[in-house]
Amino acid sequence: MVLLLTNKIKNLFSILSILMNLFLINFILFVSTPTNLSSNKSEQQQQDRDDRLAGFFLQEHQQPLQGEAESSIKTTTTTIDGEMQYGNHGGGGELQQQEQASRSGYVRPDIMFGHVHMSKTGGTTLNGLLANKYERVCGIKGYSYDAYQANELALEKPGKVNASDNPRDKVILFGHSVMEEIGYEDCDYVSQERRWTFWKRFSEFHEIPMELHIPCRDRIDHLMSQCNYRHKQLDCDADDHDLFSAVDDCFAYMNRYSDELLNLKNIHVKCYDFKNRYTSYIKYMKQFLQPRRLESKPYKRRETNLPRRKENECIWSRPDVYKKVDRYMLEEVPYYSFCDRCLGSPDDITREDKY
Predict the structure, then answer these.
(1) How far, CA to CA in Å, does 3 sit from each of 56, 72, 234, 242?
(2) Strand-strand pairing, 142-143 and 112-116
(3) What is the distance between the alpha carbons of residues 318 and 192, in angstroms, rounded to a whole number?
(4) Of the candidates 84, 76, 39, which has an alpha carbon nearest to the alpha carbon of residue 58?
(5) What is the 3-state secondary structure (H, E, C) of 274-297?
(6) Contact in structure between 335 and 207 (CB atoms under 8 Å)
(7) Where are the alpha helices (DSSP H) in the chain?
């Protein structure tokens, strides 16, 4: 009983002390204020006085009262501190991402994405489209940082534009050394057309895991596109040895893929269907990449191949040749074996039941 009475007396004295200080400050301000000020000055001075009183009041309340008042203040402080810790220390999982998204509009993914640009799989256009549409795309056929101006220059040119003709496509003109000079630390999406060993660096890249995407195209159609790129034709009447040798001569940069990619630490290899590269694949990437503030429209593709004359490709009218060439590619080329296993599997990004 004595202790409770003592606390109440202390609280009473604290309140009286605050009231006396408030009275003293008001009196000093009143005495120091001239009576002949204009109304505008009086209003400003009144606002300044209110601000000083508010600051004084908050400063006084930093010292908690005892008993019931102290408990109330601690509860409020705990709630505020809890929210601050939640916002600053990265906890909360999905809730924290939602809170961050509500503030910034974009939540950066906790992984990087890689694109193995297999020759003649539409990678030039895909890389250019993504760089023109999203931030932090870093590719041998397009970077986000100058994609807008590169496409605007391409649009100014009549007719078709070759990949090497545009002066803003600096990476295309000067090659891989430019990408190495820039680095990949600020990239969310990397598209590269080098030998498969290029991707080994991302096994231990600042402890950021990577999802690596492999394009998969119909084998025979892909072969014929490569033959067109190499300016070669198959002789459907040749014996198997010469036929398969001609197939090998058509292959373009198949060393960009290796089954060794499947064993790299912190890299998860997935595939996508070439037919869906501009539809469901871009829809998939839209979930992770940040849209650019400005997008140059329409995107003008850069040509890398001469037009194909499919009617001159004998393999389409020779089912026997078609079958044995297809089997040869599937059994002898690791890239095609991987695609055969991956398409339709859970690692197929563009599998129909996903969208």
Answers:
(1) 30, 20, 103, 105
(2) unpaired
(3) 36
(4) 76
(5) HHHCCCHHHHHHHCCCCECCCCCC
(6) no
(7) 2-32, 39-60, 68-88, 94-104, 123-133, 144-156, 170-174, 176-182, 219-229, 240-250, 280-286, 319-332, 334-342
Q: Cβ(261)–Cβ(212) under 8 Å?
A: yes
Distance of CA 247 to the CA centre of its chain: 38
Measure the CA–CA gap between 48 and 346, rounded to whole angstroms. 66
Residues pairing with 116 in the sheet? 192
Residue 185: HSE in the Cβ half-sphere, 13 Å Cα cutoff: 4
In the block, which residue shows the tokens 């006085």? Answer: 49
pLDDT in tens, 45-71: 555 544 444 444 334 433 433 333 333
pTM for this prediction:
0.69
* Single-letter amino acid code for the residue at 288: F
**Phi-psi bin for 291: left (phi > 0), alpha (psi -120 to 50), beta?**
beta
Token pair listed for 281: 């694949």
